[in-house]
Amino acid sequence: MQRRDILGLAGAAALTPFAKPALAQAWPSGPGRLIVPFAAGGPTDIPARLLADEMSKFLPARLVVENRTGSGVVIGTDLVSKAPKDGQTILYTTIAHACLRALFDRLPFDPVADFTPTTYIGQIPMIMLVNKDLPARTLPELIDLLRKNPGKYDYASSGNGGAVHLASELFLHMAGGLKANHIPFRGSSAAMPEVLSGRIPIMLDVAAAALPYMQRGELRALAISTKERMPYARDLPTFIEGGVAGYEAYTWHMALVPSGTPAATVQAINAAFNRALSQDSVKNRLSDLTMDVTTNSTPESAARFLAAEMAKWEPIIRAAGIKPN
């Protein structure tokens, strides 16, 4: 069963159309705030703004995106944790939320106890890229190269403790405890010149960023991090096909509100997101960003997913000794 199917169990009710008068009973008065703890124009901000615009068409009041960055995602997340429990302030975040407890010794909030997940939005896979001069044309050849040369090769990531870094460490761990040196950058675009030049020959990156380099033949793509091959890269094998049994890794998006928000409001927020995600224009745009969209998430399935992601990534973070910059 696909992950999106598991998330959607018992979620059909969330797709039921609703009218503004019904929503108004559970939705706060005045504009809602969608807090994005990432920079404007980035890969998290773009889907958030797309959804906010669509939701504003049928909500009682407009949903406005606010970018609150700093200390990773801590500042924006903390703002939401201390917001009124009325559903007017929503956190739009990523896999970063699942990693906070393991990354930080101290936090001004509890990532679990202080939040209620409302909606799982979707997931974006990653693609393993290597410089064309690296003597590895397949994932098994890369694994063999790293196994025979422990610590010799560097790999780039889009940031320390981010999804790409974590997924890279998961690969090294699951491929047999391979050793390679992590070189973090401030974003994928900053790392790519080094990978293209061969100075850092290996990088796992989100599919949306990796595909153009693969399609232009500038870098060699070895594997995609999904369970099955994807339509936009049917010739690209999965990590599982490449010999890393059970390997799956994604960055993902989720909406959360402060814990204690009334259940009816949580359900209204969930229904609003699902309605927006069900629109063909939204699904097509997010698909262009290589996001596998979930249109029938429930608050309960979102909470279960978050708990599973914490259980998956926290041991990897601690074993690798990963700390925020």
Shape, please?
globular
Share of helical residues: 25-40%
Which percent range describes the beta-strand content? 15-25%
The number of helical segments is 12
Quick one: biggest sheet? 10 strands, mixed
Order of helices and strands: HHEHEHEHEHEHEHEHEEHHEH
> Got a strand count?
10
- Terminal CA distance reads 37 Å
Oligomeric state: single chain
* Average pLDDT number: 90
Q: Output the radius of gyration.
A: 20 Å
- Ranges with pLDDT <50 over ≥5 residues? 1-21
- Given the helix and strand composition, which structural class is it? alpha/beta
Defining key terms:
single chain; 325 residues; alpha/beta; ten-stranded mixed β-sheet; 12 helices; disordered N terminus
What does this structure look like?
The structure is a single chain. Residues 1-21 have low confidence and may be disordered. The chain has helices at 3-8, 20-24, 45-55, 74-81, 96-103, 139-148, 163-174, 188-197, 207-215, 263-277, 280-288, 299-320; strands at residues 32-36, 63-67, 89-94, 115-130, 154-157, 181-184, 202-206, 220-224, 250-258, 292-293. The chain has 325 residues and is an alpha/beta fold. It contains twelve helices and ten strands. The two termini are 37 Å apart.
Concise overview:
With 325 residues, this protein is α/β, with parallel strands linked by helices. Helix content is 38%, strand content 19%.
